[in-house]
Amino acid sequence: MFKSHSSSQPIRVHLLISGQVQGVGYRAATWDTANRLELNGWVRNLADRRVEAVFEGAKDSIERMIQWCHQGPPSAQIQTVTVEYESAEGLQGFQIVD
Fold it and tell me: Which of 19, 30, 38, 51 could pair covalently with 78 via S-S, beta carbons 3.0-4.6 A apart?
């Protein structure tokens, strides 16, 4: 029987991205990419110059988002991306938070 893609159990990842990631459009590009991949969650700048993000959604879309975070927008220079898997909370939509 065909199993709908949307019926798969969503997963959640919590990322911390360091490098030249603030002032380069990283959050806006993350928002655009997450929406394109139909992911829920949020992204924000941290005081220590890193970017923090949480994504919830289908496993394949999450994996693509993690890959993208290692590149970021063209002017970003990524040093490290730490990924922690967590239990999904059922977030709705994707937003940039302060």
Answer: 19
Neighbours of 98 (CB within 10 A): 4
Categorise residue 37: left if φ over 0, alpha if ψ from -120 to 50, beta otherwise.
Answer: alpha
Helix (H, G, I), strand (E, B) or coil at 61: helix
Question: Which residues, at least 6 apart from 36, have a Cβ–Cβ distance to it below 8 Å?
Answer: none
Tens place of pLDDT per residue across the chain (98 aa): 344 444 478 999 999 999 999 999 999 999 999 999 999 999 999 999 999 999 999 999 999 999 999 999 999 999 999 999 999 999 999 999 98
| Active-site amino acid positions | 27, 45
Question: How does DSSP classify residue 47?
Answer: T
CA 1, 86, 37, 40 dihedral sign is positive
57: alpha, beta or left, given left = phi > 0 and alpha = psi -120 to 50?
left
